[in-house]
Amino acid sequence: MPNLSTLTPAHHANHAAPSADSSWRHQGSLWSNLRQVCELLAIPAPAGADEDDSMFQHVRFKSGQRIHRIGQNFDTLYIVNSGFLKTIHIDEYGNEQVLSFPMKGDLLGIDGIHKQHYASEAVALSDCDMILIPYKTFAALGRTHAELEHAMFSVMSREIVREQAMISMLSALSAEAKVARFLTNLGERFSAMGYSGRSFNLRMTRQEIGSYLGLTLETVSRTLSALNELGMISVEQREINLIDPSALKTLRRLPPAKARIKVAEKVTALVNKNLLPQWNNEAAPALN
Amino acid sequence: MPNLSTLTPAHHANHAAPSADSSWRHQGSLWSNLRQVCELLAIPAPAGADEDDSMFQHVRFKSGQRIHRIGQNFDTLYIVNSGFLKTIHIDEYGNEQVLSFPMKGDLLGIDGIHKQHYASEAVALSDCDMILIPYKTFAALGRTHAELEHAMFSVMSREIVREQAMISMLSALSAEAKVARFLTNLGERFSAMGYSGRSFNLRMTRQEIGSYLGLTLETVSRTLSALNELGMISVEQREINLIDPSALKTLRRLPPAKARIKVAEKVTALVNKNLLPQWNNEAAPALN
DNA sequence: CGCCAATTTGAGTCCCATCAATATTTGTGG
DNA sequence: CCACAAATATTGATGGGACTCAAATTGGCG
Known about the structure:
2 copies of one chain form a homodimer. The first copy, chain A, is an alpha+beta fold. The first copy, chain A, folds into 2 domains: 17-170, Jelly Rolls (Sandwich); 173-272, Winged helix-like DNA-binding domain superfamily/Winged helix DNA-binding domain (Arc Repressor Mutant, subunit A). Chain A contains 8 helices and 12 strands. In chain A, a hairpin with a 2-residue loop joins strand 11 and strand 12 (239-242). The termini of chain A are far apart. The structure holds a DNA duplex.
C-alpha cells in the first residue's frame, strides 16, 4: 500500500484535483511512483524503485494560475508532467523578468531551498499537470536510495549550467542571435519531447520572449520579421517554422548596417534567399 | 587518526603543496576538518562533526594559475580559503566570459557535477589557498550526516538564486547601474569577510569587470569616471572608495543626457555632491 | 630603463529602446 | 453569433546609450 506520508499538502486543496480524497487510488493518472518520476527527470531509476511505495501527487493548474509565488513558504518542488510555464523574477520596482520557460520534465522550485522561501514565481502558460515533490521527501530520497543522491545533485548542477549559458548569451550576443538561438533551443526541446523541432507554436508573447532575452517586444517582433525576410524561418503570429536551423544556430550578427543595406536592397528582392552570403560563418569578433 | 581516503588526488601533485606526503600531520594549515569546512561555507556543522575524522587537503595556487579547466574530468569541488579568483566560460568562438569572482567561503566546481566535466574554468587572480573536497566525499557526507544534506542542497540553491539575480541585472539595468551595483556588492562581500566595505581595491581588470557585466572595458572605465565626477565614489586605478553606498545601491539610470548636461555642468562644480537631486529615487520605468 | 599591459579619454557610429500609430487576435457579454 | 473591448503584434520614425576605433598616459615588472 502506498505511503500516505506524501499525500496532499493542505495548501493545495484549493487547486481542486478532480478526485475525491477517498478515491485517489482509483484515479490512474493522479499519482506517480518513484520510477515514473525518475523517468520524467531523465535520471536512472534506483534499484529499489519498484519496491518504494511512496507516491507523488499530481495537481492540475489552469492557464494563468500561479504554481508558487515569490516569498511564499517553500516546502514543495514541482515537476512538469505536461503543459508550459514561465518562471519570473520581480525586481524591487515591480518589473517582471522572465527567467525560464519550463516544460515537460523540468523541475521547479529549487530556488526556494536556500532561504526556505521561493525566490521566483511560476505561472502556467497553458493548462498544466504538475507532480508535487515535498521537499522533505526529496531530501529523504538521497538517504533511502544512495544512487539517487548523485542524480539529485546532477539535476541541480544542470540548472546551474543552464543559467551560466544564459548569462553568457545575454551579455555576448546581438538581438538577432538571441532570437535565433531562442528558436533553435525551443525546437530542440520540442524534439526531445517527441514533437516536431521544426514546426511549433510559441506559447508565450513577444513581451515575454523579450523579457527572457533582455530585449523589447518590438525588437523581438522586428527580428522575427527579419529572419522571416531572410528565409531562415517563417512566422505567422505564434506559428513558427524553422527553415534553416543550422544557420540560425550559428548566426552571430547581421552584417554592419552599411553592408546590409547594400546587400539587402540590391539582392534581397532579386535572388533566392538561400543563396545569400553566409554571414554567420565569418570569424567571430571578440565581443567583450 | 584522520581518514586517509580523502588524501591527495594524483592529478594535483604538480601543484606542489609545500608539504611532503609524510609530514602532512605537522603542517597546521594544510588540512581542515569537517567543522572548519562548514564554518567556511557558513552552514551549521552537524552534531557529529568533531568525531568525523575525514580531513580536507589544502592546495595553494599562484596568481594566474588555473584551478580547473573546461572539459576537464570532474572529481573535485573547491572551497576558497583565501584569495580571489574568476570563473569564466568560453564560447564556441573562444571568447571569454567572466561568470563570477569567487572569494573566501565560495564553493567552486558545482557546474561539473552534471556532465562529470567542468563546464567553466577557474583562474586565480591572486595567490589562493583552496580546500579540496573530492566529490565522492561530498556526496557521502549527505549520508553520514543527515543534517548536512539540506545544507548541501542549500548551497547549490544559493548559487542558482545568485545566477538568477545576475540574469535579471544583465537584462534590465543600464551600464551605470550595473557598475554601481557591482561595486556595492563587492563592498558587501568584503564587509562579510571582515574587511572594509567602503574602501577596497579591485582584484580584476576593467576588461574582466566589463565581461562580467556585459559591457566593454571602455564603458566600465567611463562609468567609473562618471561616478567619480558625481561624487558617489572615488577611483584611482584599482583603489575604490564608496562615498555614497546607498545612492549607488539604488541608482538605476543617470538622467537623460539633455538634463544631465544641464545639471552636471551647472551644478557639479558648484554644489556639494550630497545635495544633488536624487535621480535614483524616481518612480521606476518599466524596462521591458 | 624600457617594454607591455592596463587605463583613460575622445570622436564617430550603430544597434536597440522609445514613442507612436495601426492592424490583428482574443475574449466576453448581450 | 456578433459587437465591442482588451490584449497582442506589426511597422515606422527618432534619439540615445553603449560599442568601436584610435591615441595618449600611466603603471608594473623584469
